[in-house]
Amino acid sequence: MPDKSKNAACEKALMKLAAGDNEALSRLYDIIGKRVYFIAFSVLGNHFDAEDAAQQTFLEILKCAKSYSGGGAYSWITSVAYNQAHKILRKRKPEQELDDAEETEFYDTDPAERLTLLDALDRLPPEDRRIVTLHVLCDMRYAEIAAETGTTEAAIQKRYARAIEKIKKYYGKR
Amino acid sequence: MNNIEKKLNKSADALVREKKADILKYCGIKIKEKSGFKKEKLFNALIAAAVVIFLVSFAVICYIPIAYKNARQIEESTEAVTGSDAAAPEKKSGAYIFNGLRSAGEPPFPLPEGIPDVKNGYYVYSGIGYDDYVKSGETLKDNGYDYDSTGFGNRYYHRFFIREDSIVYVNYDKEIKEFEIFWYKKSPYAPENGVTEDEAARMLYPEKSSSKLKLHPLDITPEGFYEKTGAQIFVAPTFSFDRYDKMGQPEMKMAENKNYFDCVTLIKDGKSFTVDYDCIASADIDGDGKGEICILNYGITSGVFTFGFCALTDKDPYSGYFQCNHMRLSFAEKDGELKVCGTLKNDETRYYDIKIEKFGGKEYINLYSDGKPLPNWSIPPAFVSSET
Question: How close B15 comes to chain A (CA, Å)?
């Protein structure tokens, strides 16, 4: 669940956007960009496509801001991000899967702690990576992830704890 | 939130912050710089400019009479030796025409602090920590460079920065704490009948909408076109399309490669030709008055050090595979000609003359140092033994 202040800030930025202030998109990105990006990452499993999905999401927000009827900006944007990510997933050819997975080894990484993130997160099995991404980076509760992935809250909790252990072990080796 | 979660979040924040400009640019929104710090910088810059203008004006007023007198004396003495209408030197066959040498000219950005070891166009800094490596990227951004992309392994880090006039490569070896930086000039020309950077990218990556995959016109040919074929020349620090083998032979097309490599792409009439490269320059090596696109590559052999030299022309490329002790390679301009320059492990630098020679009716590239040719694996053994 989004915290109220973030939802209110999203709402405000969306209203500005609907009134024709395109620069409000930048503010919106600051508030919810991380969630959009990592929602897409959780679906697509690589940074390359996640960036494409994030671009499409913000373009969609820009186009459709006027039709947004109010009430739950945070959830609305989240669902746009899911839709865009799934759109890319559907378009993706089966043989592309392997190639794109290889690409993440080299692309879209950056300084400082970036290695930490990619090394640790990318080395997890896809399902574990998805759970960690949604819980840590998209602020989703276990119950929400369980609903999303069609499993129980307890199972998600256990799996999450194991994934975090794996990341810790990986740190230990470095 | 535990420590791991905090670190993941911190990394994610940095990643998303960095992608902001690209993502919003895609939506047609340009990010405005935050003003506070910039205003302060601007104010300081104005004060500094005012002081400089005052000092320069004062110096000029004092200096002009002396300078004028000295200039007249120099002019008179030069005229006495050469005559006032000294002819321009004649163009030599095989001479250097136009180049895009690595790190040519003045650095287009402030170099990191410290004294670099400059070899083959690489500015190498030793004993550099990871934080300083990251800081160098921030300095480039402060100087108007856009971060393009990064590749990394467990030990090596590679980053690319783009500005209108140049491409900067920043590499870091975490294990030996060595940091190197070099740059290429981008082409200032936008040819009338050519393709733009975006069109070139769309042509090569029709299925990708990401702004990640980019091509950059290299400042290597006059007027933005390769004069022999009319092709445009682009480089891509990261790429994701078919390329040809190091010798530029189309029949040796390599499988689609999705890794990080540098490559150079020639584009003409909607067709492209891509070959990976380590070093590139343009020079007239066959003496026909027009330049060839010369490309150096490290060889594909293991155990024995080899490197490839490929010169693209309007006919079959000139090419050769050479064997020698391990060297760091580059092109260099020496005595008005393009040479292959190799730095050995003991820091000895060798220059090799480039010659096109005929063996068995076929033309090959040969490289000579002090009159001795480098062993060339491309020339059939019979000719090697008789000619060398």
Answer: 7
